[in-house]
């Protein structure tokens, strides 16, 4: 006996869906083809992420569009899918997973909204509910595979960053492999961190570090960059030149402008954080940040059985040395001539300076307001 189209698809093809959004849209389309009067669908997956508790994909039958909603760890009780479906019509939903599985309450949640009518829940008659139950049963295996892939992606992104995680998932695992890319680099570091950590409770120090990293990394991500490393109290981030840019010159300029906006936002965030800390009777957190632009090798280095996805090259060395000049020059932000040549942002020149281990002197600039 042939299975109905949605069930056959769930058995034969659904496990290879490129993502939950495509899974939901394709399943909804096939249910519509079976005659179910659907107005929308929702799929919710739990993810192991430090900020995001659940991801929900919302499909609208009329437009076939899928959008994503996030439930954050601070508000775990939010049920975006159920609330959204209720606005479309009568709702039928179920938790996917074996009844005997103690973790079923954390399993995928699949729901559908019927076309609203004066008959109330009649959109889901006995035949429709029977099919939806069978769909939920057959969906368990492909959704388990999808949930595992999403969980793996969430963990990799949390620890490696979005771009690096995508490379690792694509199979870039061999030691010594990588690619040369052009990017603006940001290197930031707290000043006098060692002395502060000597007189601060370790738990308070971790809280302070987290607050500092939130300001810097938050600004980096807000302007399209990616944090590569947290090293003690240091941060290394990149703003790669993307293929979507109009050309080499435009791409270089876009990356540098993004880095400049990020470092300005980081500085503003740290000023506000220091005000909050001082109101609490805590010491401020002075920091320095440097920007440079150039080519880097972005890829795998490390031991045979312990790899690190990172950036290396002369440009990385220079931006690190440049950040070390922040304290001697009494500046929060220092910018290399390579970045200054790729921006229209007004900068203040500070002359040429010799950097330790760098052969040629570096033209150094700073923000006008620094």
TrEMBL record:
Its EC number is 4.6.1.-. Keywords: Lyase. This is Adenylate/guanylate cyclase domain-containing protein. The keyword Lyase applies. Transmembrane segments: none annotated. GO terms for biological process: cAMP biosynthetic process; intracellular signal transduction. Pfam families: Guanylate_cyc. One of its GO terms (molecular function) is adenylate cyclase activity. The keyword Lyase applies. InterPro entries: A/G_cyclase, Adenylyl/Guanylyl_Cyclase_3/4, Nucleotide_cyclase. Residues 184-323 form the Guanylate cyclase domain.
